[in-house]
């Protein structure tokens, strides 16, 4: 059975989750400033005070903090975050440098996309750039994928390739990956919002759902 999200006919609301500096968020804020982009950032959420929330405040975007330390268990935090997202009713959620694993309640209610600084399924986890460089690959890149219960295991939506230079450090390589990551995320959000998509097994097909999908 395939899951389908049809194209939207008007402006689309999203929620962006951040934990750090918010450079991916800023790319979306800049894109959403153009009415032709057709996407509205309805809220920005975080698990902690961070620079990303400052960016949201400057842009006049509603924001919230849902901190795990305020809840007795991870499950209760997940339920509270799910409730905050439910109040906003986004078409989908963007995890943009959000450094928390989302739980069953959120994932059962929301479509969540994430970016990762490597070409998945290679080099998942928190150190994708470092691991790719240590392995000696000649190309790496960035992946946008749907979030599932695993660690960077969800269906791939899009990928961008970045060549590895002989003199690259983790920092220099990551900076070049970030340039592609921001451009890819802006493009994917627009395409998912207005073109619709279908998930068939582990494949994501962008565009209006086909009448032949059963």
Quick synopsis:
The chain has 214 residues and is of the alpha/beta class. It has 2 domains: 10-110, Rossmann fold (3-Layer(aba) Sandwich); 114-196, Rossmann fold (3-Layer(aba) Sandwich), CATH 3.40.50.
Question: Kindly state the mean pLDDT as a whole number?
Answer: 94
What's the order of the H and E elements? EEHEHEHEHEHEEHEE
**Radius of gyration (Å):** 17 Å
- Count of individual domains: 2
Q: What's the architecture of the largest domain in CATH terms? A: 3-Layer(aba) Sandwich
How many beta strands in the DSSP annotation? 10
Largest sheet: 7 strands, mixed
Structural class of the helix and strand makeup?
alpha/beta
- Strand order of the main beta sheet, please? 4-3-2-5-6-7-8
Hey, roughly how much beta strand do the residues contain? 25-35%
What is the terminal-to-terminal distance?
Answer: 6 Å
Tell me, what's the shape?
A: globular
What proportion of the residues is helical, as a percent range? 25-40%
Would you identify the regions where 5 or more consecutive residues have pLDDT less than 50?
none
Name of the CATH superfamily of the largest domain = Formyl transferase, N-terminal domain
């Amino acid at each position: 059975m395939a899951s389908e999200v049809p194209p939207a006919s008007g402006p689309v609301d999203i929620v962006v989750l951040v934990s750090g500096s918010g450079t991916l968020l800023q790319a979306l804020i800049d894109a959403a400033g153009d009415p032709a982009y057709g996407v509205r950032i309805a809220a920005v959420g975080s698990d902690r005070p961070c620079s990303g929330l400052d960016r949201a405040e400057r842009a006049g975007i509603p924001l919230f903090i849902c901190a795990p330390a305020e809840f007795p268990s991870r499950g209760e935090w997940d339920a509270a975050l799910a409730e905050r997202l439910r109040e906003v009713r986004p078409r989908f959620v963007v995890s943009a440098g959000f450094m928390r694993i989302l739980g069953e309640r959120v994932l059962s209610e929301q479509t969540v996309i994430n970016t990762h600084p490597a070409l998945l399924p290679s080099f998942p986890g928190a150190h994708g750039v470092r691991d790719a460089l240590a392995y000696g690959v000649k190309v790496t890149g960035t992946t946008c994928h749907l979030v599932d219960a695993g660690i960077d295991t969800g269906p791939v939506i899009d990928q961008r390739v970045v060549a590895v230079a002989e003199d690259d450090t983790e920092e220099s390589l990551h900076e070049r990956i970030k340039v592609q990551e921001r451009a890819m995320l802006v493009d994917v959000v627009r395409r998912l919002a207005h073109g619709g998509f279908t998930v068939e097994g582990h494949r994501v097909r962008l565009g209006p759902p086909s009448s032949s999908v059963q």
